[in-house]
Amino acid sequence: MKKRLTGSQIVAQTLKNYGVEYVAGIPGHGIWTQTDAFLEEESKIKFIQVFHEQSAVHLADGYYRVAGKPMAAFTSIGAGASNTVIGMATAFTDSTSVMLITGGPPTHMRGHGLLQELERYTDNDFPKIAEAVSKRHWVVTRVEELPFTMHRAWSAMTTGRPGPVHIEIPMDVQAEAAEVAL
C-alpha cells in the first residue's frame, strides 16, 4: 500500500520497519528535516544526541558489537560529515554494521560551495571520502529512490561480511514528499 511520506519520513519508517531502536547524531542545518522525522511519534525510534559526530558512529559501532543489531548515525553536511570518518573506518576494518546518513546540499545547488559543502576541486567530496570507509555509499537525488536505496543499504550492511554503509540525502530530498510503498 502506498503512502505519502517525505524523504525523511521514508528513512525513519524504513529503519523502524527493520527494527532499529536507536539513532545517534547531531542536528544541524543539513539534516534538520531528518531529525524531525526521527522525533515524530510515528517512528518511535529513540534519538540520542551526541556532542561530536565521531561519537555517533562509534556509538552505533559499539551497539552492533554488544547487541548484534545495526544502529543508524546521522550528521549534517560538510565538516560534520567529515568527523565520522574515523568511526566509519573502525566499523569497516572490524566488519560491523553501521548506517551513516548525512545531509547534502540541495540538488540544484550541488557544486556551488553551499553550506560547508566540500567542493574545492570536485563537487561535494564527502561521498568520495565515504567510499573508502564503507561497503557501499549512495547519493539520493529523488525522493522516489529512497525506499529502494534504504533496502539496498540495509542488505549491503547486513549480508555477507557486515560493514558500514553511507547514504547522503540532499536537504530538498529530505523535505520532498512522494507516494511510496515501504
Structure, described:
There is one protein chain. 40% of the residues lie in helices and 21% in strands. With 182 residues, the chain is of the alpha/beta class. The mean pLDDT is 91. Helix 7 links the parallel strand 6 and strand 7. The chain is globular and about 40 Å long. The termini are close together. The protein has a single domain, classed as Rossmann fold (3-Layer(aba) Sandwich). The strands form two sheets. A six-stranded parallel β-sheet has the order 3-2-4-5-7-6, sandwiched between helices. Strands 1-8 form a two-stranded antiparallel ribbon.
Concise structural overview:
The chain has 182 residues and is α/β, with parallel strands linked by helices. Helices cover 40% and strands 21% of the residues. The chain has a single domain (3-180), classed as Rossmann fold, CATH 3.40.50.
Key features of this structure:
40% helix; single chain; 6-stranded parallel β-sheet; Rossmann fold; 8 helices; alpha/beta; 8 strands; two-stranded antiparallel sheet; 182 residues
Count of alpha/pi helices: 8
Q: What is the residue-averaged pLDDT?
A: 91
Describe the biggest sheet?
6 strands, parallel
Beta-strand proportion: 15-25%
Q: How would the blueprint of this fold be written?
A:
Blueprint: E1 3-6, H1 7-17, E2 22-25, H2 32-39, E3 46-49, H3 53-67, E4 71-75, H4 79-82, H5 85-94, E5 98-104, H6 126-131, E6 136-139, H7 146-158, E7 165-170, H8 171-175, E8 177-180
Helix pairs in contact: 1-2, 1-7, 3-5
